[in-house]
Amino acid sequence: MTSGYAIVAVLVVALGTILVGTYGLRVSRTTSDFYVASRTVSPWWNASAIGGEYLSAASFVGIAGLIFAYGPDMLWFPVGYTAGYLVLLTMVAAPLRRSGAYTLPDFAEARFRSRGVRAVASILALAIGWLYLLPQLEGAGLTLNTVTGAPDWVGALIVTVVVTANVMSGGMRSITFVQAFQYWFKLTAITVPIVFLIAVWQVHGADSLTTPEYPAFRQDTEVTFPHDTMIHAEEPLYIKGIGEIDGKYVNTVGHGLTAGYHRIGQGSEFVFPKGGAVPHVSTMAHNTNASWALPESSGQQFPLYGVYSLIIATFLGTMGLPHVIVRFYTNPNGTAARRTTLIVLGLLTVFYWMPPMYGALGRLYTPELLMTGQTDAVVLVLPTRMIDGIGGQLLGALVAGGAFAAFLSTSSGLVVSLAGVLSQDVLRLGGVRGFRISAMLAGIVPLAMTFVATGMPVADMVGLAFAVAASSLCPLLMLGIWSTRITKVGAIAGMLAGGVPALTAGLVTMLTDTGNAWYEVLLSRPAAWTVPLGFTVMYVVSLLTQRHVPPGVQQTMVKLHAPENLGLDGSGSSSADERS
Amino acid sequence: MTTPPPPKGPEPKPTQRVVVTSPRTRAPRARRPYSGTREINEQSELGAVYMRTLIRAQRRLGLSVCLVAGGALGLLPLLFSIEPELGKSRILGLGLPWFLLCVVTFPMLLLAGWFYVRQAERSEREFAELVERP
User: Fold this and answer.
1) CA-to-CA separations, A405 to A140, A182, A447, in angstroms, rounded
2) What family does the Swiss-Prot or TrEMBL record give for this protein (chain A) (predicted)?
């Protein structure tokens, strides 16, 4: 798996990102350049940049890994990530651009004329951003670990340093170029290999992906266990190698592994025989390839609740992500914001056709990942596994580079937007210097968090960030834009009522082991109860406090909804509070 | 109009009748002296009605597109849960859930988005025509 080409690819991507960033440094000089690329970005550039920023570790490696492990229920991740843009397009895109807000706290203040609402929105945006950065860094660690064997923290550190340095030097303008480039690079990096992989699969005889047998080793496979792992063997296996099984040290020529649960010690290395049924991590369901391909095969408790909660979180959470919102400001007007979003929908559609294929092929070619639990690595391992020699190595390098691009671009976008929030609302440092200090802080906090988080699949962690966004900032945007009755008190109450439980549930799942408790799914997929809670509290409290409707709400509505070119007071790009 | 036609040049017709009027200054003004833009800027009742109409139309459009797309997708898990046999049926060599979620969904979302953009821009154009009418 360790490959020189892959290391080169990762280095090239990192260096390329820095170079484009430095090029940006020469053209970005004013504060406005730093924040919003001076609003000179065309819809295609902008849409590519949004796509590049949005397709994160979760999309590039995480989705394939989850589908590989848990089956078609996980298809709701790509569907939800895309549908989130439809909701964003129909409910938020144009009014948000017309509000003239650069960050979500800006929107909160413009709509409610209240520092209080702004402060709460800032804290939530920071929490969501950091929660979202964490899996990017974990994914980077995993990628570097897979292609070079380096410890997990190395990848996280590299991403943090590259991104923070880049953002500090170039700001948003260079980031727009970097991001747009990253989309097309990521699309290439995931599409080209899968074309070859499918061709190889066809040449091998196009084995059915849904046979009623357990996944089996295609050849004698040497497996290293990086952590203590509880596995379940579906049938007895005769394995060779050195390591620890059920607390006993084994170094004999061969060892019979009985069917059932076994604990394999950290650092064990065993060779599993060709044709043997692959054991799987104890947390996965006992699925044959046929039962894996059916709905509700994930083995979760309350699968229907889990799916609906995921749907709610991803459909509604997209609009609340801090790095997504910023991009709308770089559109010249509301109409362009809509068209940009539509292009983004198209770009995402093309990309999300790929990861499920990796996940499905993984069942045939890299089933041992089911046993080590490193399911997120399936995209990275498949090319070298399926194609021998230099071809496989090069394709593997391409995928590794693409994955690294995914971590870099999403992290860049997040660090830019978090730095914006930090410099304006928390540190209160203006100008380019304040932005740079904030960017540093925005990168360091999640790096520190990676040391305390437990290894959870990256797409699941991203799902939690979506859940918090959907329960707090989504009600603020949806109700704030479409209802004149929302009050300051209602807005704050609603954001807290939805956001605090969702955030708490997310942190509890990430930092503790809730095991198989019945309430586990309520915590790991909180959106189905926290989103309605946020919306209801915001609306009801607003109705109860109608005396506190913010002043001038009618004018705000004109600004949000009327086309810019009609000469209406407050609307259009010439309005006074637009950042100059 | 209120001004008489200018007398025509060389060939006067003695029988022509000329109506002499002056601009009406004291009569109540006509109902729509302002453009809608001004009504909105001065925050009159009428301006508020204009804005409410636009916002309602856009909200209805946005919500309908979301509900149709989201509702169609949202039914799938329930359907597969109630009728597990559906999950086993196959289309074009793919299991039905895979076919629907991987192949069908994405173009449908794109189509919904395209429809929304078209309609939203149309209703904004209509709004612009309405308020800019003198």
Assistant:
1) 10, 6, 18
2) Belongs to the sodium:solute symporter (SSF) (TC 2.A.21) family.
The token duo for A425 is 């609302």
The whole-number average pLDDT for the span A262-284 is 81
- The answer to whether A363 faces chain B, any CB pair under 8 Å, is no
CB A271 within 8 A of CB A241: yes
Residue A221 has phi, psi (to 5 degrees) of -120, 125
Q: Which of B95, B113, B131 sits opposite A566 (nearest CB)?
A: B131
Interfacial A residues in 496-525 facing B (CB < 8 Å): none
Cβ distance of B87 and A76 shorter than 8 Å: no
A242 touches A250 (CB < 8 A) = yes
For residues A346 and A223, give the distance between their C-alpha atoms in angstroms, rounded to a whole number.
Answer: 40
Residue B28 to chain A, least CA–CA distance (Å): 27
Task: Give the closest of B105, B112, B117 to A339, CB-based.
Answer: B117
Q: Is B4 exposed, middle or buried (0-12, 13-18, 19+ CB in 10 A)?
A: exposed
Measured CA to CA in angstroms, residue A494 lies from A171, A506, A532 at distances of 33, 18, 10
State residue A566's pLDDT score. 72
Query: What is the interface size between A and B, counted as CB pairs within 8 Å?
Result: 133
pLDDT digits (tens, 9 = 90+) for A178-197: 778 888 989 999 999 999 98
- From the options 3.40.50.150, 3.30.200.100, 2.30.29.30, 1.20.1730.10, give the CATH code of A4-203+294-455: 1.20.1730.10
In terms of pLDDT, which residue wins out, A172 or A44?
Answer: A44
Inter-chain touch A566–B113, beta carbons under 8 Å = no
Q: Is the pTM of this model over 0.90?
A: no
Decide if A94 and B120 are in contact by the 8 Å CB cutoff: yes
B40 and A558: CB-CB below 8 Å?
yes
**pLDDT of residue A573 exceeding 50:** no
Q: Is B107 in Cβ contact with A90 (below 8 Å)?
A: no
Q: Do A311 and B74 touch (CB under 8 A)?
A: yes
Residues A477/A92, Cβ–Cβ less than 8 Å: yes
> Which one of B81, B117, B129 would you mutate to disrupt binding with A, by most A Cβ within 10 Å of its Cβ?
B117
Contact across the interface for B128 and A558, Cβ inside 8 Å: no
- From the list A77, A66, A73, the residue with the least C-alpha distance to A352 is A77
Q: What is the ipTM of this complex?
A: 0.86
The ranges of chain A annotated as CATH 1.20.1730.10 are: 4-203+294-455
Query: Which chain A residues are closer than 8 Å to B95 by Cβ?
Result: 72, 210, 293-294
* Neighbouring residues of B27: CB distance < 8 A, sequence distance ≥ 6: none
Of B105, B124, B128, the CB nearest to A79: B105
Cβ contact, residue pair B120, A339, below 8 Å: no
C-alpha A118: how far from chain center: 25
Model confidence pLDDT, tens digit, residues A481-515: 998 889 999 999 999 999 999 999 888 887 776 66
A308 contacts in chain B (CB < 8 Å) = 74, 77
Most confident of the ranges A43-47, A300-304, A466-470: A466-470
Cα–Cα separations (whole angstroms), residue A310 to A33, A174, A427, A524, B23: 37, 34, 35, 10, 70
Instruction: Report how far apart, in Å, the C-alpha atoms of A415 and of each of A268, A439, A530, B104 are.
Output: 38, 6, 27, 35
Quick one: closest CA in A to B38, which residue? A568
Residue B2 has pLDDT above 60, yes or no: no
CA-nearest residue to B106 within chain A is A349
